[in-house]
Amino acid sequence: xxxxxxxxIGPIFQRDLFNLPKSEAGAALKTFRKISQLTWEQSGQxxxxxxxxxxxxxxxxxxxLYSFIIRQKYRAIAAREGDYLRILSxxxxxxxxYQ
Length: 99
Hints:
Blueprint: E1 6-9, H1 11-18, H2 22-36, H3 40-45, E2 52-58, E3 64-71, E4 74-81, E5 84-91, H4 94-97
Parallel strand pairs: 1-5
Antiparallel strand pairs: 2-3, 3-4, 4-5
């Protein structure tokens, strides 16, 4: 059986989430709910998430980083840790998310 992704949050992401306007925070929660119901393979293939590996940088432990769309205006940066998707930060500027 393929495992579904579980979501963990980092302190920077938590700050970013709490500072979102209410409508954007609602969209973020809807996206996280969707991800939690998908397998890893499904998450990577979902056209609405526009899941992308970030080749320009690595996480603190050398892990691969990924971005996906929260809403047209926001992207999340995340790393996979076993069965968990550790969400690291949110960005309203697409280019900044990849720096």
